Amino acid sequence: MNMRKATLEDVxxxxxxxxxxxxxxxxxxxxxxxxxxxxxxxWVIEENGEVVACAALHPTWEDMxxxxxxxxxxxxxxxxxxxxLVKACLDECKTLRVNKVFALTYVPGFFEKVxxxxxxxxxxxxxxxxxxxxxxxxxxxxxxxxxxKI
Length: 150
Known about the structure:
Layout: E1 2-5, H1 11-22, H2 32-37, E2 42-47, E3 50-61, E4 64-72, H3 81-96, E5 100-105, H4 108-113, E6 117-119, E7 144-149
Parallel strand pairs: 4-5
Antiparallel strand pairs: 1-2, 2-3, 3-4, 5-7, 6-7
């Protein structure tokens, strides 16, 4: 197992992993273009040279960032990879001097286990909703807002 920042060579693997869950309505889809534009946000875990898990930390405001696109391949579930990726994102928050991190998720139970708490979407600045316009579920979003103070 090797955890590292993503490279351009990882983009097609990230796209396949993320959109595999998106087709089952477990997470939101990401286009190749969007992943290329944000590749620096991603952490990956690889086994035997294959990307098997990913997560992105995307700064959204002066003291805030979002954990997004957290995915672990079915074959590599229950190896603590999701927890390791979130921890890497939280460590990166300290480097960036981010005070608050959030996630919009269909799986709030996982985020509760790693120290996030539920919050009302109305508590967040409007800036974080800029991606929502592109979402296929807009305006009927049923993701849960999870927040953690750093």
